[in-house]
From TrEMBL:
Gene that specifies this protein: HSD11B1L
Organism: Callithrix jacchus (White-tufted-ear marmoset)
Signal sequence, start to end: 1-15
Name of the protein in its database record: Hydroxysteroid 11-beta-dehydrogenase 1-like protein
Family statement: Belongs to the short-chain dehydrogenases/reductases (SDR) family.
Compartments it resides in: Secreted
GO MF, one annotated term: cortisol dehydrogenase (NADP+) activity
Amino acid sequence: MKVLLLTGLGALFFAYYWDDNFDPASLQGARVLLTGANAGVGEELAYHYARLGSHLVLTAHTEAFLQKVVGNCRKLGAPKVFYIAADMASPEAPESVVQFALDKLGGLDYLVLNHIGGAPAGTRARSAQATRWLMQVNFLSYVQLTSRALPSLTDSKGSLVVVSSLLGRVPASFSTPYSAAKFALDGFFGSLRRELDVQDVNVAITMCVLGLRDRASAAEAVRGVTRVKAAPGPRAALAVIRGGATRAAGVFYPWRFHLLCLLRRWLPLPRAWFIRQELNVTAAAAA
């Protein structure tokens, strides 16, 4: 019976996510500012947008990686692609990035927030200093970018696409400051969506809940702590793009994360058991 129930739920979620009226042509000529575009899901997002004919401004911390991604985007057919290297740990960076994008593209249709800063997993990551740094990179810079870009997105009736994490919906061990920043994102953008609705502002907000990022830095940060495998970058990126283009309120990749979020309040003890199966608790506690 349990197997049949889970199979039925899986079929329903699959049908829900793929019956989304996604029209790839809607992204041709779209003006996109994408953060965290140097690796992993962000890099794959850039390549998908390039194939679909979007105009791109890419930003990330490392200029050399950005130059490589920009070159590949041009080969894939992006009509316009620019880059600006920026460190989101600096409070001045977000505004300069958005201004650069507005100057180059003349406005924005999509703001795709994907950059992350990761602290080492384990108890040493709970310090106030680490938490302050993570909150600037993973939360406050998102707020700053959004605030600066919102007037342009309002004019274009555009979309905010926020790439978050399961740790912003379901707390887990040994990720205290990172999870705090992701929960803050969920609260901020959930409240902002309601404010925009009340004010009749036609800007969509799509919250994307992804698993472990498919990038070397993410894998290294949790090496020996978790048994979770990284989500494949190209497929996760495509799910994010589909959600943003169809103005969906939420995207979950893999789809089972939606089920976990729905059940988290109903079944707290089984949830704790499942989390323990994914963690090497001894290694994490010793970190």
